[in-house]
Design brief:
The protein is of the alpha+beta class. It is built from 9 helices and 4 strands. It has a 4-stranded antiparallel β-sheet with strand order 2-3-1-4, sandwiched between helices.
Length: 186
């Protein structure tokens, strides 16, 4: 049985979900960002207990098919930007369509309608947060960060970074203390 969970965006979320399933005595095959595959069908009571436990932790069990698809889009972007070593060198719209088995135009229209923001802007916001994270870690140069996140050039990264943050990457690097936005709040 597949369950979909909203706001599940980190390894910490996965650990929390595993813990809640264990408390309920539910065995799982897979716990990944936004999706859980459990071995047995949950009773109405177990499902409600799980829903309440998730809600206490800021997560949400989803039933609506469109909401599930929106969450899948978000999770693909988050996984790609925050948890992959490097972004694929293919067109992002093709990647998303292939990964979710839907036409990109449909995904894009649905996402914009429900979220009030385009997939592109959502993706850019996450890429910029990842750039901030990598700048703060101070392990990679701006050139290496641009390459890692599949920017066409350092100038492209710098322009996008400045458009979103109001700062150049080098100025941000000097500030370092600038508060980053948690992934869940983007």
């Amino acid at each position: 049985m597949i369950l979909y969970i909203k706001y599940m965006v980190s390894n910490r979320c996965k650990m929390l979900v595993k813990s809640e399933l264990k408390k309920l005595g539910v065995h799982y095959i897979l716990v990944d960002l936004g999706v859980v595959d459990v071995m047995e069908t949950l009773s109405t009571e177990q499902r409600e207990q799980f829903r309440l436990a998730l809600r206490k932790s800021g997560l949400e069990l989803m039933d609506d098919k469109k909401a599930v698809l929106i969450e899948k889009i978000k999770n693909v972007i988050i996984e790609l930007v925050h948890h992959s070593d490097e972004l694929p060198k293919v067109n992002f719209s093709d990647y998303l369509s292939e990964k979710l088995h839907y036409d990109y135009t449909y995904l894009s229209n649905l996402f914009s309608e429900v979220q009030g923001i385009t997939i592109e802007k959502f993706s850019i916001a996450h890429k910029i947060e990842r750039v901030k994270e990598l700048i703060i870690y101070n392990e990679l140069s701006i050139t290496e960060i641009a390459w890692k996140l599949n920017y066409s050039s350092v100038a492209h990264l710098s322009n996008q970074f400045k458009k979103v943050t109001g700062l150049s990457p080098s100025h941000f690097k000097k500030l370092k203390g600038e508060r980053r936005i948690p992934v869940e709040e983007i």
